[in-house]
Amino acid sequence: MDPRPDLRDGMPADRPLRVVAVHAHPDDETLATGLTLAHHVEAGDEVHVVTCTLGEEGEVITPELAHLEGRGEDLAEHRRGELDRAMRALGVRHHLLGGGRPRWRDSGMAGSAAVQHPRAFAGADPEEAAAVLAQQLTALAPDLVLTYDPWGGYGHPDHVQTHRVTARAVELLGAQGAVAPRLMVVLVPASWAREDRAWLAGHVPEGVRSPAGGVARVLSPDDPYPPGVVDDAAVTHTVMDTGALPRQRAALREHPTQVTLHDGWYTLSNDIAARLPGREAYAVWPDARDRLAELQGVPS
């Protein structure tokens, strides 16, 4: 059992907690924080997800839906349906940033031409977006807010922007005299990342293909890790709950344009195998900034 505390440590114990996760695109909520969301749903807490864009630039791995790739609004509407079904599977309440339809759209991967779109989220004024989110958070009055680390996990511009906007929104709540929620950023301890690659090496059969025909690949211990994999010392809290995995898996199954689910693991459009280990890790923000900067640098 991991010695670090659960997210409810220091939280009110006499009532259900209110938890809000803020994510960039449909499926991010389940991939990055799905176990935690399911864990809190199972505990009887009130759980919400705010999604900043509808993933207009996402790659489509399902052959029968391949015609949607590159058709931003059509893909967005399809992914909205996937997201709605995934939220029901998780048992959480869902909101789009800014209301019924997102004010901003998917910016695409780093270097994509989509970042030049006038509504690209990565190019949004962070103060404007943070004010919109702060208004929604005020109405939800969360105890805990979850979002990405300052690198956005693996560097996606919208993930980085979501971290920036969410951190600023929580600051605004405090500046307005409200009781600011505890902000937690998702991290992956380096020891977990190594364990997961070793597990995958022993559990992913050779030649497993995705719906699009790609072959699942297991990264070696020597392959680079994304920036969201950090020294274990940077992690302050963990969620360890294999009992919540069925909800997470059920939600991932509702994102077939993006995720191919297997027994204990999954692949995305890059065909790299990733484990579903029944654990997620976090650090309190901005308290963790200095520690992360000391260990490996933090982007501005």
TrEMBL record:
Key words, A-Z: Hydrolase, Metal-binding, Zinc
EC number: 3.5.1.103
Any single GO BP term: mycothiol biosynthetic process
SUPFAM superfamilies: LmbE-like
Any GO MF annotation of the entry: metal ion binding
Keyword Lipid metabolism: no
Short name of any one Pfam family annotated for the protein: PIG-L
Transmembrane segments: none
Enzymatic class: hydrolase
Keyword presence, Hydrolase: yes
Superkingdom in the source lineage: Bacteria
Record-given protein name: N-acetyl-1-D-myo-inositol-2-amino-2-deoxy-alpha-D-glucopyranoside deacetylase
Organism: Serinicoccus hydrothermalis
